[in-house]
């Protein structure tokens, strides 16, 4: 309808990797349950060791138990850098004290919910690996996948599908794609691995491929601000016809225009 309105550059709000292609901040989502199956803990621990041995940084939710705790243990045991981002309610004394004791850095965040914690996690990541976990893990995973679908997050997301844990989730994603509900094919949103080695290899490989999507946020914001001022000036001139005479504005067309601009990043991703 308005093909000329689709932006040709990346959106200003895009989340981009910040470290070099040889050293990554690997953000790992996973369970915090003390009853997590041993098979999940074993592969999580192995992933932590591999992250450390590869010279990467392991970023987790800062918990001491479950897959989350195991991956931090593995990283610490291998002499790596393990960073935790934890809500302050899990740092209280007594039973609510769930923070990991062996982290290189523990970042505490507040808030009435987990939004600030998720934001802090995503800001410190170049790629993501999702281990088996509960609703909190799925919340974090879906946040990343949603942003990627909208073109806001070019970073790779890998499901470590231990013992078929994510089979149901992947089946649901395929159903969404079949019913044409997804804007982007599943394989462009999520990669899958069955071992820790494969998961980290996918992160390293696809991070390198995504480097051409990096942008300079400051310069991009300046360009956006300049474009905004130009559009405001043009709109003002358009309302007066350029000679002081006021003309009609088609509000319906403006709504359609805004909708197309909002969908543009997804349309661009579908073309990749």
Can you walk me through this structure?
It contains 9 helices and 7 strands. Helix 1 runs parallel beside helix 2 and helix 1 packs across helix 7. The protein is α/β, with parallel strands linked by helices and 272 residues long. The N terminus is likely disordered.
Could you name the key traits of this structure?
272 residues; seven-stranded parallel sheet; 7 strands; globular; 46% helix; alpha/beta
Topology:
Elements (H helix, E strand, L loop, with lengths): L24 E5 L8 H16 L3 E4 L5 H12 L3 E7 L17 E5 L5 H9 L3 E4 L4 H15 L7 E4 L6 H12 L7 H4 L1 E3 L2 H14 L7 H23 L11 H21 L1
Parallel strand pairs: 1-2, 1-5, 2-3, 3-4, 5-6, 6-7
Summarize the structure.
The protein has nine helices and seven strands, in the order βαβαββαβαβααβααα. With 272 residues, it is an alpha/beta fold.
């Amino acid at each position: 309808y308005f093909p000329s309105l689709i932006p040709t550059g990346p959106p200003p709000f895009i989340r981009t990797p910040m470290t070099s292609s040889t050293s990554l901040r690997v953000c790992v989502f996973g369970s915090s349950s003390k009853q997590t199956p041993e098979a999940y803990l074993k592969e999580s621990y192995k992933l932590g060791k591999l992250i450390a041995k590869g010279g990467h940084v392991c970023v987790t939710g800062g918990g001491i138990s479950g897959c989350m705790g195991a991956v931090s243990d593995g990283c610490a045991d291998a002499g790596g850098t393990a960073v935790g981002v934890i809500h302050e309610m899990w740092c209280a004394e007594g039973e609510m004290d769930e923070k990991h004791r062996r982290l290189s850095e523990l970042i505490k965040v507040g808030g009435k919910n987990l939004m600030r914690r998720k934001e802090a996690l995503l800001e410190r990541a170049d790629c993501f690996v999702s281990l088996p976990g509960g609703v909190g893990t799925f919340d974090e995973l879906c946040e990343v996948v949603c942003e990627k679908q909208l073109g806001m997050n070019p970073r790779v997301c890998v499901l470590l599908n231990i013992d078929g844990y994510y089979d149901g989730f992947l089946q649901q994603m395929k159903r969404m794609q079949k019913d044409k509900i997804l804007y982007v094919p599943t394989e462009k949103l999520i990669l899958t691995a069955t071992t820790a080695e494969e998961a980290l290899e996918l992160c390293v490989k696809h991070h390198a491929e995504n480097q051409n999507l990096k942008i300079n946020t400051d310069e991009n914001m300046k360009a956006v601000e300049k474009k905004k001022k130009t559009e405001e000036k043009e709109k003002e001139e358009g309302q007066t016809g350029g000679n002081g005479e006021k003309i009609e504005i088609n509000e319906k067309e403006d709504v359609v225009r805004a909708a197309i601009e909002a969908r543009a990043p997804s349309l661009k991703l579908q073309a990749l």
